[in-house]
């Protein structure tokens, strides 16, 4: 039974009865709006407290599960992030923390009606997944993104015990893929699944079990399989699930007879609701035409695992007039991006990933030419992640003039410290153009050879920037000070391999308590500087990560974040909490 609050103030002067106010506030969707209304008065605070059904926690150490459950007694859905983002680049050592199990133990007592759990960069063991499956009888949705510590045995527990499961979304995790038999653990009476994603598992799956599961679940809207699923098997799955809205295919390179190819094309043609397509592992050009009939209503194409060439991409894009999001590998080259500019006028998001970021002598890739071509043909573009091997200040200025509404601009020139390859100037004016022109900018990632001038531009013009990522940039402490003094909405600052020292670190003394986190690694910060920060701001958690030997002088990796829970209790020996 749902908890009900006692009327703490029976003489309340609130315009609405408590139940009505709770219902109204419960209709708010935005996290920021919910937080804002809770600050209006005590009545609204209490009403929002009891009406809240979902919660997002951007850092699992910013609050404890005990504090969370006291603040919000009726939560049904929890989204929780763990390790710092730079763990994606192997900068956070294994066994750093962010284990979900202590949260589950508290939730089992306080939130036994929990329905959804969405985790990112958390450590999740098989024991935790089994615990989750046994202690939450109404559990419906599990999403694990970039998590580690578990195996397919844990997935088997979820499949076996979660009778009401509607979503199982497993993305880019460090999972031990023991075998594909976990799919056979779903009971034969199980029919409720709406989302199934196991695209990044490596081993063969039990296809008979998968086919039976898909055929039973008539409400299935999202299906993303791994590369072990063949084209022939994919055709059989599509026959059972023409209602799909999102599809991630398996391998796209098997030999098919003419009849099999025709049957696959027909299966795709019958998928009238398809709006998202991904997968296409090791795509073979001869079979791409089977997709054409299903492309009419596509709004999102994710080819981040399909190294297509420019001609194959261009032929496909002709059939995608409604495309809004596109992820590709740089094998499409500039010619492929020219096709994007020609055929995708509604495009809002573009991500270009490197096929091999560590191959110095690689021949293919994208340049400033492709970037400009996209900006000329896609005026709605507002989100870009662009890995390239060369860039110019003039090109970036042209891109943002063509697309001034960027909210996310992440330019990654893959050679650290690279200058404008035509003029040999620093790339300061490129990012100056970005922050001067794109007044809605919220997230910015810097690359190339940059002096303090870039940071002066960011501090002066980047008034809406919330997340800034910096690597191999800057001239002195002054650069970081400009950002900390000039960006009022800054919430996350990620810095690596920059000449920023104690003065830069301490420039944020008045800022860090209003931010979510600061990460600094391989900079010039010393232990004395970090200790002074911790002394001046005791409400901050200040951690130093030293993996090898303890250095009394240098603070190799510094992680600073606000927390209402105090220092964490599970820090490993290589994490020093100040």
Quick description:
Its main location: nucleus. The protein is of the alpha/beta class and 578 residues long.
Measured on Cα atoms, how large is the radius of gyration?
A: 25 Å
Given helix and strand content, the structural type is: alpha/beta
- Average per-residue pLDDT, rounded, comes to 92
Any idea of the CATH topology of the domain at 17-52?
Answer: Monooxygenase
Pick out the low-confidence regions: 1-12
* CATH architecture label of the domain at 17-52: Up-down Bundle
- Helical stretch tally: 19
Question: Under the CATH scheme, which class of the domain at 17-52?
Answer: Mainly Alpha
What is the approximate shape?
globular
Distance between the first and last residues' Cα: 43 Å
Query: Roughly what percent helix?
Result: 25-40%
Number of beta-strand segments: 23
Largest sheet: 21 strands, mixed
Written overview of the protein:
With 578 residues, the protein is an alpha/beta fold. Helices cover 31% and strands 17% of the residues. It has 19 helices and 23 strands. The strands form 2 sheets. It has a 21-stranded mixed β-sheet, covered by helices on one side. Strands 5-7 form a two-stranded parallel sheet. β3 (116-120), α6 and β4 (141-145) form a beta-alpha-beta unit. It is globular.
């Amino acid at each position: 039974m749902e908890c009900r609050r006692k009327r703490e103030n029976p003489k309340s002067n609130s315009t609405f009865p408590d139940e009505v106010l709770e219902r109204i506030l419960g209709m708010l969707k935005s996290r920021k709006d919910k937080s804002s209304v809770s600050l209006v008065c005590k009545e609204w605070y209490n009403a929002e407290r009891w009406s809240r059904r979902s919660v997002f926690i951007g850092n699992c150490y910013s609050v404890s599960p005990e504090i969370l459950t006291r603040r919000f007694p009726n939560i049904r859905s929890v989204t929780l992030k763990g390790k710092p983002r730079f763990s994606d680049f192997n900068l956070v050592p294994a066994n750093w923390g962010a284990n979900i199990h202590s949260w589950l133990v508290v939730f089992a007592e306080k939130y036994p009606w929990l329905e959804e759990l969405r985790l990112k960069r958390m450590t999740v063991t098989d024991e935790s997944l089994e615990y989750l499956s046994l202690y939450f009888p109404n559990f419906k949705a599990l999403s694990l993104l970039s998590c580690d510590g578990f195996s397919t045995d844990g997935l088997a527990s979820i499949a076996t015990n979660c009778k009401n499961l509607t979503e199982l979304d497993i993305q880019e995790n460090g999972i031990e893929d023991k075998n594909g038999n976990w799919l056979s653990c779903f009971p034969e009476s199980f029919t409720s699944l709406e989302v199934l994603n196991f695209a990044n598992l490596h081993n063969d799956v039990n296809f008979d079990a998968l086919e039976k599961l898909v055929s039973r679940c008539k409400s299935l809207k999202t299906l993303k399989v791994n590369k072990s699923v063949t084209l022939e098997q994919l055709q059989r799955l599509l026959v059972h699930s023409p209602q799909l809205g999102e599809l991630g295919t398996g391998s796209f390179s098997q030999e098919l007879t003419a009849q099999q190819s025709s049957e696959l094309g027909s299966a795709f043609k019958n998928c009238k609701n398809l709006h998202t397509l991904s997968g296409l592992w090791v795509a073979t050009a001869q079979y791409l035409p089977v997709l054409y009939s299903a492309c009419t209503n596509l709004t999102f194409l994710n080819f981040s695992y399909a190294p297509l060439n420019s001609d194959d991409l261009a032929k496909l894009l002709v059939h995608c007039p409604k495309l809004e999001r596109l992820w590709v590998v740089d094998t499409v080259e500039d010619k492929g991006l020219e096709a994007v500019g020609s055929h995708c006028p509604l495009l809002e998001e573009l991500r270009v990933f490197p096929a091999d970021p560590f191959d110095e002598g690689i021949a293919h890739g994208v340049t400033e030419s492709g970037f400009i071509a996209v900006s000329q043909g896609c005026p709605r573009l507002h989100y870009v992640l662009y890995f390239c091997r060369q860039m110019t200040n003039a090109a970036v200025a042209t891109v943002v003039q063509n697309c001034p509404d960027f909210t996310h601009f992440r330019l990654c020139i893959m050679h650290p410290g690279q200058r404008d390859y035509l003029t040999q100037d620093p790339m300061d004016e490129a990012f100056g153009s970005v922050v001067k022109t794109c007044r809605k900018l919220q997230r910015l990632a810097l690359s190339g050879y940059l002096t303090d001038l870039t940071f002066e531009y960011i501090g002066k013009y980047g008034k809406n920037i919330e997340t800034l990522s910096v690597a191999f940039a800057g001239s002195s402490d002054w650069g970081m000070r400009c950002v900390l003094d000039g960006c009022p909405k800054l919430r996350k600052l990620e810095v690596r391999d920059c000449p920023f020292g104690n003065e830069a670190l301490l420039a944020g003394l008045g800022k860090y308590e209003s931010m979510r986190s600061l990460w600094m690694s391989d900079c010039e910060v010393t232990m004395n500087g970090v200790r002074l920060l911790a002394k001046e701001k005791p409400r901050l958690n200040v951690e130093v990560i030293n993996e090898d030997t303890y250095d009394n002088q240098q603070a190799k990796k510094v992680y600073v974040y606000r927390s209402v829970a105090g220092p964490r209790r599970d820090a490993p020996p290589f994490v020093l909490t100040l």
